[in-house]
Amino acid sequence: MKRAGKEFVGDQGELYLVEQQPGEEAPYERLLGDAMAGDGSLFTREDAVEAAWAAVDHVLKTHSRVRPYKPGTWGPRDADALIAAAGGWHNPG
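Structure (tokenized):
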């Protein structure tokens, strides 16, 4: 976990799986408070966001569209063609 302060230095710590410790800020309370105070240390820098979009944007523009299918099924029938050369898909249900 990140040490308190501006430096990005971490320490090992025990994970507590509880909603909130007494006296602690609610989830996002610190994040929103830091944003309103102009502290961007918990936010991704603009150049990193742009680099991530450069990778994702290519996929979004060149990949085929999503084919919707009914909930509870094993996917669209078009997906069967993807595995046909390997013997097809056996629906276990």
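The first helix runs from residue 29 to 37. The two ends are 43 Å apart (CA to CA).
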